[in-house]
Design a protein that fits this description.
The chain has 124 residues and is mainly alpha-helical. It is 47% helix and 6% strand.
Length: 124
């Protein structure tokens, strides 16, 4: 995971994020290393990134600015918004006070574990 400043544009981390996707085990054969399709909002609407995604064999589903996208992106987006909201429920993560990246990432990992534990408890 790459940690960047809060004032950086998200699109700058698109390709490094795709490079960090681990192999996905599944059916017999070579494990998949990249997704078939990438859903993204209008902030990623640029021909450069569409081209780079296609070169990697990933079909972009990126909403265009000023146009209705019709790809159903709004139905998936709330998952990300909700997860960020859950992480902001931990006061220490709302504002990053730690100077060291490893400590901040440790708190993020701990928060994710606690969120997962709460949801598993609801299932039992």
């Amino acid at each position: 995971m790459s940690l960047t400043g809060g004032n950086r544009n998200d699109v700058t981390q698109l390709l490094p994020l795709l490079d960090k996707i681990p192999a996905v085990a599944g059916v017999v054969g070579r494990p998949r290393r990249r997704p078939d399709m990438l859903f993204a909002d209008r902030g990623y609407d640029h021909d450069k990134y569409r081209r780079l995604l296609r070169q990697r064999g990933i079909r972009p589903a990126i909403a265009e600015r000023g146009q209705p996208h019709g790809t159903g992106l709004g139905t998936f987006r709330w998952v990300v918004e909700r997860t960020i909201s859950w992480l902001h429920g931990f006061r220490r993560l709302r504002i990053r006070w730690e100077r060291r990246d490893d400590i901040h990432e440790a708190f993020l990992g701990l928060a994710v574990c606690l969120i997962t534990h709460r949801h598993v408890q609801k299932l039992c």
